[in-house]
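Morning run. Coffee first, then this:
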Amino acid sequence: MFRNIQIAADELPKVADVEWLGMDPRYRLKLLVAGAIAFALVIAGLAGLHTILAIAFRAEEIDVPLALMWLALPPVAVILLAWPYRAVPRMGYAVRERDLLYRSGVLWRKVTAIPFNRIQHVEKDTSPLDRRLQLANLKIFTAGGAGGDLKIHGLSDDVAERVRGFLLDRIGTSVEQP
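And here it is:
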C-alpha cells in the first residue's frame, strides 16, 4: 500500500548544517581581471564617443553630458573592484550522498540542489584566463530542460575534474579524460 507520511517542519534538514566548500581563491582574481578588462573597454568606448561627439558638435554643447558620463566611471570602478570581495565568499558547493548543492548571490541569494538521478551529463570548461589561473567551471545538465541546469564557476582545475569524475561515476557514465 502506498504511504506518503508528512514530515514535521522541525524534522527537516537545515541548509545551515551543510559544510560548504568555497570557491578557489584565484577565482576572485579572475573576476577582478575580467572586471578590469570590461572597465577598460567601457573607457575606450566612452573616449571614442567623446571624440566623435566633439568632432560632430561644438564642444560647448556637449560638455555637460560628457562630464556626467566621465563622472559615472569612479562609482562603476568601485563596484567592479568591490564585487568579487562580496560575491566569492558567498559562493559554495557541497557534494552529498544523493545530491549536489550550490549557493550563490550577494543581493539575491540562491541555493540549488540537484539530485544525482536528475543529472544527464557533466561538462568541464575553461576560458583562456581560467587556464592561466588553473581554474575551471562545471556545467551540470539535468533532465527536464534548461531551467534545471547548473554552472559552478571558480573551481580549481583539479577539484573540478575530481567532482566531474565523481558525478559521472554516481550517474553511471564512463569517465573520459579531457
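Residues 90-171 form a domain with the PH-domain like fold (CATH 2.30.29). Good start to the day.
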